[in-house]
Amino acid sequence: MMRLILSAGLMLASLLAAAAELSAVQLDKSSIAFVSRQMNVPVEGAFKQFSAQIHIDPARPGTGRARIDIDLASIDAGNDEANDEVKGKNWFNVREFPKASFVSSAVKPLGGERFEASGMMTIKGKTLEVHAPFTLKQEKGILILDGSFPLKRLAYGIGSGAWSDTSVVADEVLVRFHFVLK
Amino acid sequence: MKYTRTAIMLHWLVALLIFAAFPLGVYMHDLPLSPARLRLYSYHKWLGVTVFLLAVLRILWRAGHRPPPLPDAMPRWQQAASHAVHHLLYVLTLAVPLSGWLMSSAKGFQTVWFGVLPLPDLVGKDKALGEALAIVHQSLNFALLALVALHVAAALKHHFIDRDGVLLRMSLADRRNIS
C-alpha cells in the first residue's frame, strides 16, 4: 500500500514536472533568420518553414533537448534571384538535401537568463557540432528563447564553386533564432 | 582666366569617376547572379558614393569661387544655355548617386563605402519602391548621359570652331602654358 502511494506520488510529481516544462513551439511567432556578408554588406535572410520540438524547463535547464528541422526550400535570401540561386546545386542543393536539422540534448547554464545549447547540425549531408548561446525569458505563460551563433558555410559546402570566394561572400554566417514556447 | 586649381582637379576627377561608373552600371546590370556581379555592384556603389562626396565638395567650392566669365562675344542664349546645363550637371552629379543609394536600400542592400564605412539606409526594404527607384536611377542616368554629351560637344565647338579659349579654362595644363 505504502509502495503504491509512493509510486503514485512519484508519477504525480513527474506529471507536474512535465507540466512545468513548456514545449509547444508557437511556429507563427518563432523565426530562424541569418545574416550573411556580401562584399562586407550585411544581408538578411530567413527560413519561412521549419518544425521545432523544444523541451526546456527553466528550473532544470540541464534536461533541455531540442530538434529543429528546417525546410531549406523555404529560404528567403533577400530577393527572387538570390532565392533561386541558393536553392541550387552550389548552395543548399534542396532537391537532394531538402532539410537541415539541429539536434541537441545538452543545455548548460551560462549564468542568469543565459544558456548554451550544444548539438549536431546537419546540412547537405554533413554533420558538425554547433554551440548556440541563447537567453531564456519567462513571460506570463510563455517562454522566449533568443539566440545566435556563427556558422561557417564552407564547412557544409554551402556556396561552392565560384561562390567559395570568401572575399565576396564571407564564410561566416550569423544564424539567429527566436522561439516562443507555450 | 581659368577655373581655380581645386575646381579643375575636382571637375576632372568627377568626370573620370562618372566615365568609369556609368559603363560599369550598364554592364553589370545584365550579368547573371555571380560573385563577379556582386563585386562589380559594390565597386559601382563605391564609385557613386565617391562621386557624390566630390560633387558636394565641388558645389561648396563653386559657391565661394565664381567661375571665370564667358567670352563677351558669346550670344546671350548660349550663355543662358551654358549656365542651365552646368547647373543641371551639378544637380545630376548629386541626384544620380543619391537615387542609386536609395534604390540599393529599398532593394535590401546597404551601401558600405569601400567595404568599410556603412551608409545609413534612408528607406527600408520595399520591393515596389526599389523597382520605382531603379527606373528613377536609370532615367536620371540617361539625362546625365545626354547632358554630358551636350557639355562635351559644346566644349569642343568652343575649342575647335569658336577658338575662344573656353575649354582651356578647365585645362589641366599649367596656366602659363595657355596664354
Fraction of residues in H or I helices of chain B: 55-70%
By DSSP (H or I, 4+ residues per run), the number of helices of chain B equals: 4
**CATH superfamily name of chain A?**
Lipid/polyisoprenoid-binding, YceI-like
Q: Please provide the ordered H/E string of secondary-structure elements of chain B.
A: HHHEEH
Please give the radius of gyration of chain B in angstroms: 18 Å
Could you give the order of strands across the largest sheet of chain B? 1-2
Structural class of chain A: mainly beta
CATH architectural group of chain B: Up-down Bundle
Unreliable stretches of chain A (pLDDT < 50, length at least 5) are: 15-20
Q: Which whole number gives the mean pLDDT of chain B?
A: 95
User: By helix and strand content of chain B, what is the structural category?
Assistant: mainly alpha
Strands of chain B, total number: 2
Sheet having the most strands of chain A: 10 strands, antiparallel
Q: Mean pLDDT of chain A, rounded to whole units?
A: 90
Please describe what this structure looks like.
- The complex is a heterodimer of chains A (182) and B (179).
- Chain A has helices spanning 2-20, 80-87, and strands at residues 31-38, 41-47, 50-55, 65-71, 75-76, 99-111, 114-123, 126-139, 142-152, 172-181.
- By secondary structure, chain A is mainly beta.
- Chain A has a single domain (22-181), classed as Lipid/polyisoprenoid-binding, YceI-like (Lipocalin), CATH 2.40.128.
- In chain A, strands 3-4-6-7-8-9-10-1-2-5 form a ten-stranded antiparallel beta sheet, covered by helices on one side.
- The two termini of chain A are 37 Å apart.
- Chain B is mainly alpha-helical and 179 residues long.
- Chain B has one domain: Fumarate Reductase Cytochrome B subunit, CATH 1.20.950.
- Chain B has helices spanning 5-29, 35-64, 76-106, 127-162, and strands at residues 112-113, 117-118.
- In chain B, strands 1-2 form a two-stranded antiparallel sheet.
- In chain B, a hairpin with a 3-residue loop joins strand 1 and strand 2.
- In chain B, helix 3 packs antiparallel against helix 4.
- The longest helix of chain B has 36 residues, at 127-162.
- The A-B interface holds A 38-44, 78-79, 81-82, 85, 162-163, 165, 168-169 and B 33-36, 38-39, 41-42, 107-112, 115-116, 127.
